Predict the structure.
Amino acid sequence: MNSVPLDPNVLNGLFEYFQKIFIGGTGVLKSPALSLFGIVLVIDLLLAILLNLGEIDNIKLLVKKTLKYGFIYGAIFYFPKILSYILDGFKWVGNAAGTGSLTSQALANPSIMTYHGLQFVEVIFARIGNMFAFMSNPMIAIPYLILGLLIFFSLCFIGIQIFLTYLEFYIVAVLSLILIPFGANKYTSFIAQKAGNAVFSLGVKIMVLAFISAAMTPLLENWALPQNFDINHVLYLSAASLTLAYLSWHAPNVVSTLMSGMPSFNASSVVSPVISTANSAVVTAATMRAGAPAAIAAAGGSSAGSAVKAATKTTS
C-alpha cells in the first residue's frame, strides 16, 4: 500500500491514493456490470417480443435493440477510457477559459494552494519573531498571527475544495458503472440516466474549479508582501484570500443549482410586473390630479373592493 507523505504535498498524496483505488474499482466492477447487462438484455428483449408480437416490424425492432445494446455494451467495456476522456475534456475547457497556463496534473493538484499559503505564513511568522518577541509584544504580534492563519486556512480551503470535488467525481463515476446496464430496459433506464446526469453535473463542477484554478494560480504566484510590510498589507492579503476561498465554494454551487434546474421564465412573469407598474402609475396620476384626499378615498375603495371579493370567495 502506498504511503501518503506528511508534507506540503499531503493533499496531492491523498488524491493520488484514492485515485488509484477508484480507477482500480472500474476493473473490479466491469465483470459484474457485464453480467447484469446480459440479464437485463434478455429480459428486455423477451418483453419487447412478447408485448409487441404481430404489431410491429420485428426486423426494425431487432435493429433498434441491437444499436441500443451495442452502445451500452461499449459504454461498459470502455468505461475507464470514456471516464478519462470526460474528465480531461472538462478540465481542458476550464483551463482554456482561464489562462490556459496550467498542465492537467497541476489542475488536479490541490497542494498548490497549500504551498502558496505556507509561503505567506512563513513570511508573516518571520515578522512576528521568536516566542520571546511574541510574548513581549502580544498586542502587536497577535493580529499578525490571526491574519496569517486566516490566509493559510483560506488557501487550504481552496485546495480541499478541489480535492473533494475530484473525489466526488471519481466516487460517483466509478459506482455508476454498475448502474449503466439498467439503461437496456425502458422501464429501468431512468436509473442509468440519473447516474449519467450525476457524472455530467460533477464534471461541470470540475470545469468551473479548473477555470478558477487556472485564473487564480498566476495571481497567487505574483502576490508578494513588501519587504517592510505592516498590518495593513496583511489585512488586505487576508481579505483577498477569503474572497478567493468564497469564490471557489460559491461558483461550483451556483453551477450545480443551474444544472439541477432553473427558475421558469414565462409570459406571466413578464405580464404581472407590467400590470403592477401600470396600476401604480394610475394611482400616482390620480393623486396628482385629485389631491391626497381623493387618492386616499380611491385606496379605501380599492381595499373595500378587495375585502368584498375575499368575502365572496369565502362564502362561495
